[in-house]
Automatic annotation (TrEMBL):
<dbReference type="InterPro" id="IPR050855">
    <property type="entry name" value="NDM-1-like"/>
</dbReference>
<dbReference type="InterPro" id="IPR001279">
    <property type="entry name" value="Metallo-B-lactamas"/>
</dbReference>
<dbReference type="InterPro" id="IPR036866">
    <property type="entry name" value="RibonucZ/Hydroxyglut_hydro"/>
</dbReference>
<feature type="domain" description="Metallo-beta-lactamase">
    <location>
        <begin position="22"/>
        <end position="211"/>
    </location>
</feature>
<dbReference type="Pfam" id="PF00753">
    <property type="entry name" value="Lactamase_B"/>
</dbReference>
<keyword id="KW-0378">Hydrolase</keyword>
<dbReference type="GO" id="GO:0016787">
    <property type="term" value="F:hydrolase activity"/>
</dbReference>
<protein>
    <submittedName>
        <fullName>Glyoxylase-like metal-dependent hydrolase (Beta-lactamase superfamily II)</fullName>
    </submittedName>
</protein>
């Protein structure tokens, strides 16, 4: 088995699980049941690790259908995902897609990558529909799930109200990717950010992300909303951002770890053809 995952206890009910390629998953355990948020790239060993961390009945919430978040789902019996991301999940499932992503993330291809037995088969499980406003009771702790479309059409965030923690995943982070065919225009994303902030006003004090850096400030959503406004008003720095043979733009100047030059938090990498809902010429 590949030693790809490492648990990191946050408290008695919450564990972060880090992958070698930089993804972060979250295990939340109540008195009656447990939930895993995201499943990484489908490298075997995740389910076995989870069994060492909890004996409670386990369900999975996928924040969205991308290769680095959803591919381990077939290992688990009960999986929830927004059905708007079914197609993107299907597109990202092939082993070749996963191998390429992993090699790029860990700094090169390694022999174990060539062995199919190290991967969960690329067959999507029978997902349960995950809808905006869904509530899951775990026993002494609960999860509330909200849609924040932008990164993909079906991207979700998870609130743990008892802990006042919001898990934003890729929906909003220090470098929100907003440029491919599955993402929304900046204007539509900004509207969704504002709508979510109204719903969650005063309900969280901490924000957890899912790549490399675990925690952000509670102002992350507000900060990224302001970045959207700067892009729309022509006030972005617009540094070129080459990615997989294309060139996109990072709104605020930042280093390779996405730490902004102005020391503020939150950024967007976007396609200049996808700024306004009706096209660039608005």
């Amino acid at each position: 088995m590949i030693d790809y995952y490492k648990p990191e206890k946050i408290d008695g009910q919450l564990t972060a699980i880090r992958s070698r390629s930089g993804e972060i998953m979250y295990l939340i355990e109540g008195t009656e049941r447990a939930f895993l948020i995201d499943t990484c790239l489908g490298i075997r060993g995740l389910k076995k690790l989870i069994k060492t961390l909890t004996e409670k009945p386990l369900s999975v919430i996928l924040t969205h259908g991308h290769v680095d978040h959803a591919m381990g789902a077939p290992e688990f019996d009960t999986v929830y995902m927004n059905h708007k991301d079914k197609e993107v999940c299907r597109q990202h499932s092939p082993l070749q897609e996963r191998r390429g992503y992993i090699a790029a993330s860990i700094g090169g291809e390694e022999p174990w990558l060539l062995d199919d037995d190290n991967f969960v088969p690329p067959m999507p499980p029978d997902y349960h529909e995950l809808k905006d406003g869904a509530v899951f009771e775990l026993g002494g702790i609960s999860l509330e799930v909200f849609e924040l479309a932008g990164h993909t059409k079906g991207t979700m965030v998870v609130l743990i109200p008892e802990k006042r923690i919001l898990i934003t995943g890729d929906a909003c982070n220090t470098a929100t990717f907003l440029f491919d065919e599955n993402s929304l225009p900046v204007e539509a994303y900004r509207e969704n950010l504002l709508r979510l902030q109204q719903k969650l006003e005063g309900r969280f004090d901490r924000v957890f992300m899912m790549h490399h850096q675990m925690e952000a400030s509670k102002d992350l959503l507000k900060n990224v909303t302001e970045v959207c406004s700067d892009i729309m008003e022509g006030n972005a720095d617009d540094e070129a951002f080459p990615f997989m043979g294309n060139t996109y733009y990072i709104a605020k100047k930042a280093d390779k770890q996405f730490i902004r030059a102005d020391k503020r938090e939150g950024n967007i990498i976007y396609n200049k053809q996808k700024i306004f809902k009706e096209g660039l010429g608005k």
